[in-house]
Amino acid sequence: MWKTISLDLLGPWSDARALFAERPLVSAGITVLILLHTLAWCRILAKSGHSSALGLFTLFPPLAIAFPFVLAFTRSPAERELRAMRGMQKVIRKTDRRLERAA
Fold first, then answer.
1. From CA 91, how far away is CA 19, in angstroms rounded?
2. DSSP class of residue 48?
3. Are 26 and 20 in contact (CB under 8 A)?
4. Separation between Cα atoms, residue 95 and residue 53, nearest integer Å
5. How far is it between the farthest Cα atoms of the chain?
6. Running DSSP on this structure, what letter comes out for residue 103?
7. Which residues in the chain land under pLDDT 50?
8. Closest Cα to residue 7, out of 18, 31, 47?
9. What is the reported pLDDT for 71?
10. What pLDDT score does 1 carry?
11. What is the CA 63 to chain-centroid distance, rounded?
């Protein structure tokens, strides 16, 4: 009884197999959108210094929901490298000041 109720409520969208079998353009369009979405995430991650393979996580819905939040609240590799370089720059400046005072 439950299946008949759910089929009646959802109509033609209730069976995904029927959707993809009867409407090949819809399935092709959905596939293209999923691929473009994944490619966009791969490019975004590559530009931010992460591995572009992390974009494949967006293919799994629970990870796709959590993924932007993880990226928003963690440091990117570019930020980590910048902090390390600034730390080295401080050490170099201190050393230069000591050498100037000694001279």
1. 64
2. T
3. yes
4. 41
5. 92
6. -
7. 1-7
8. 18
9. 86
10. 47
11. 9
